[in-house]
Amino acid sequence: MYISWLGESCTRFHVLSQILNTEVYLLFDPYHESPSGSKLSKLTADIVAISDPASPLHNARERVRGRDEQKVPFVIDCPGEYEAGGVVLYGIRAENEHWNPPHAVTLFYAEIEGMKILSLGAFGQAKLTDAQMEIFEHIDVLIVPLGSAYHPTVAECAGMVSQIEPRVVIPLPASAQGKKHNDALVTQFAKELGITPDAPVSKCKIIKKELPAEEIKIITLSLE
After folding, report:
1. What band does 20 get if pLDDT is binned at 50, 70 and 90?
2. What is each CA distance from 51 to 55, 185, 190, in whole angstroms?
3. For the chain, what percent of residues have pLDDT higher than 90?
4. Segment 132-163, tens digit of pLDDT
């Protein structure tokens, strides 16, 4: 499984399943335009997960077409249980308390190649509830947006990582204030956790047997 970052909360998963003998592209939270003015290029995907249909930072579904011209992407944008292309996804209700007025959003928890992945997407609570934590036990990969006015603070995000205790965490810094600011956000986040992050890569490869056994690993992604 390969993960790349396309800006804001948007990540793309490229899954090459030897077990299912299939190739799947999963896209989380495509956006219309970032606060910095950048726009997401048109993309192809098999599955699109949208954590907040009301937000242009998470709901540019029209920018995504199917990889097969005869098929449109399978789009999910609300709580529920889904399966497509051998990928099982669970949409879990959450809140974004930073919008005015606050409203419901969806966290996406996926099972891919025997690994459990959680994307916080448009999440805007100061911390996870007990009910949410019961669902998010034993997460392997956690994707955490940082720095936006619509997300928890860096300290609150670090606190959630400590709650969940994933094996890998991937922070996605807001892009509005440039690379120097983004680097500072990741440094602050890592310092809160007491972990030294890996050097940024444009795409990371995640294999279950190579996940850290005890410590939490921070993987930083540069924009693709």
Report:
1. low
2. 9, 23, 25
3. 58
4. 998 888 899 999 999 877 788 999 999 999 99
Report whether 154 contacts 13 (CB < 8 A). no
Q: Domain 2-218 falls in which CATH fold?
A: Metallo-beta-lactamase; Chain A (3.60.15)
pLDDT digits (tens, 9 = 90+) for 44-71: 999 999 999 988 888 999 999 998 777 8
Q: Print burial letters for 93-128: b (CB count within 10 Å at least 16), e (below 16).
A: ebebebbeeeeebbbbbbebbebbbbbbbbbbbeeb
Token pair of 169, please?
Answer: 């965490």
Separation of alpha carbons 199 and 60, rounded Å? 30
Using 50, 70 and 90 to split pLDDT, how confident is the model at 126? confident
Of 170, 140, 19, 5, residue with least CA distance to 87: 19
Structural tokens at position 12: 């793309």
Cα separation, 131 vs 128, whole angstroms: 8
Torsion of CA 170, 18, 74, 205, to 10 degrees: 20
